[in-house]
Amino acid sequence: MSQEMLTTFFGWMSVINIAFLTLATVLMLVLRDWAVALHSRMFGVSEADIRTAIYGWLAHYKIATLVLSVAPYLALKLM
């Protein structure tokens, strides 16, 4: 693979991951009460624990996106 091809790959991967992260965040803001109630009933976990898990998942996904998609893209662009 050439550097140009890798740069394109990581660029589109970053766009897709950021779009998914944005969509998930917006949906969690809009549908938070419904999603928390649904998962609480499905898994028998308290609503406070579900809210913490959702917040943690979004945080971990954001970090993974930055480290595994955006950082390599920026590094390749700087080369």
What does this protein structure show overall?
Helix 1 runs antiparallel to helix 3 (about 45-79). This protein has helices at about 5-30, 30-45, 45-79. It has three helices and no strands. The longest helix has about 30 residues, at about 45-79. The chain is mainly α and about 80 residues long. It has one domain (about 5-79).
Summed up:
The protein is 91% helix and 0% strand. By secondary structure, it is an all-alpha fold. 4% of the residues are buried.
Total strand segments: 0
What is the mean predicted local confidence, pLDDT? 95
Major sheet characteristics: none
Class by alpha and beta content: mainly alpha
Oligomer: single chain
Taking all Cα atoms into account, the compactness measure Rg is 17 Å
Low-confidence stretches: none
What's the overall geometry? Answer: elongated
Number of domains: 1
Helix and strand succession? Answer: HHH
Query: If helices are DSSP runs of H or I spanning 4 or more residues, what is the number of helices?
Result: 3
Kindly estimate the percentage of residues that lie in beta strands according to DSSP: under 5%
Helix content range: over 70%
**What is the distance, rounded to the nearest whole angstrom, between the alpha carbons of the first and last residues?**
15 Å
